[in-house]
């Protein structure tokens, strides 16, 4: 069995009782090989904590907010390669090997290509657009499973504790250190928001939110429009 002790996989969680056990079970081989699996709960009330506890190396509790939760996990992580994994995203087989190779070849950070799970027509095109936009801009989304050298993460100060767009802000900061390694291996992320709201409305909403963010709109206002806001957002 390979030695994966360099890796800390950090998973922010909020009310994911239906999915957290299959996710953590899929990481068991890496955990057995020494990878650290850190789950950071943001105040779940559906039994997620109890379900995750036996399968995680470390279970933490943080105030709600994905960026805040991921920072809390990074603060406790022992590995020198941090991999931030959303609770509704699945890594491909042998995912840690291409990360290790990219880091060994000089990358400071990177992300995977993504596929979106679901039978809604057009999801493959959306994923293709996300992957190529990321390659062209050097901006990664959290759905793409961002990985980063610990030193680089600390250098940029971690995630900005924003209620939305924290992945874009982190990418911009890391891009000043180096261009991301854009791995061709694909993570699989849930298509539930696309299924719930429809393909075109979701695309238009995300474009609008990004445009407003680039034009200086406050992330808390964007989070309200998106339908999400941590319980104690920053002013």
* Main sheet: strand order: 3-2-1-4-7-6-8-5
Taking the alpha carbons of the first and last residues, their distance comes to 48 Å
Order of helices and strands: EHHEHEHEEHEHEHHEHHH
Shape: globular
Main sheet attributes: strand count, strand direction, barrel closure: 8 strands, mixed
Portion in strands: 15-25%
Description:
The chain contains eleven helices and eight strands. Helix 10 (199-214) runs antiparallel to helix 11 (219-226). The mean pLDDT is 89. Strands 3-2-1-4-7-6-8-5 form an eight-stranded mixed beta sheet. The termini are far apart. The protein is 42% helix and 19% strand. With 235 residues, it is α/β, with parallel strands linked by helices. The chain has one domain: Alpha-Beta Complex (Spore Coat Polysaccharide Biosynthesis Protein SpsA, Chain A), CATH 3.90.550.
Features:
235 residues; alpha/beta; Spore Coat Polysaccharide Biosynthesis Protein SpsA, Chain A; 11 helices; 42% helix; 19% strand
Write the layout of secondary structure elements.
Blueprint: E1 7-13, H1 20-26, H2 28-32, E2 36-41, H3 48-52, E3 58-61, H4 66-76, E4 81-84, E5 89-90, H5 96-104, E6 109-117, H6 123-137, E7 147-149, H7 150-155, H8 166-175, E8 181-190, H9 192-197, H10 199-214, H11 219-226
Helix pairs in contact: 10-11
């Amino acid at each position: 069995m390979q030695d994966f002790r360099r890796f800390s996989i950090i998973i922010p969680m909020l009310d994911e009782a239906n999915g957290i056990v299959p996710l953590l079970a899929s990481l068991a081989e890496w955990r057995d090989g020494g990878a650290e699996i850190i789950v950071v709960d943001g105040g779940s009330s559906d039994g997620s904590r109890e379900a995750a506890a036996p399968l995680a190396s470390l279970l933490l509790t943080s105030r709600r907010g994905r960026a805040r939760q991921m920072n809390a996990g990074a603060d406790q992580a022992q590995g020198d390669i941090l991999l931030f994994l959303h609770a509704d995203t699945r890594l491909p087989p042998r995912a840690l090997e291409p990360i290790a190779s990219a880091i060994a070849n000089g990358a400071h950070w990177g992300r995977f290509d993504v596929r979106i799970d679901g039978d809604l027509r057009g999801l493959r095109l959306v994923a293709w657009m996300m992957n190529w936009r990321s390659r062209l801009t050097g901006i990664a989304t959290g759905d793409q499973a961002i990985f980063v050298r610990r030193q680089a993460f600390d250098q940029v100060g971690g995630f900005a504790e924003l209620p939305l767009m924290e992945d874009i802000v982190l990418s911009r900061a890391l891009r000043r250190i180096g261009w991301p390694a854009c791995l061709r291996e694909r993570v699989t992320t849930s298509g539930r928001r696309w299924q719930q709201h429809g393909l075109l409305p979701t695309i238009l909403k995300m474009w609008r939110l990004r445009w407003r963010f680039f034009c200086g709109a406050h992330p808390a206002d964007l989070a309200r429009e998106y339908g999400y806001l941590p319980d104690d957002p920053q002013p």
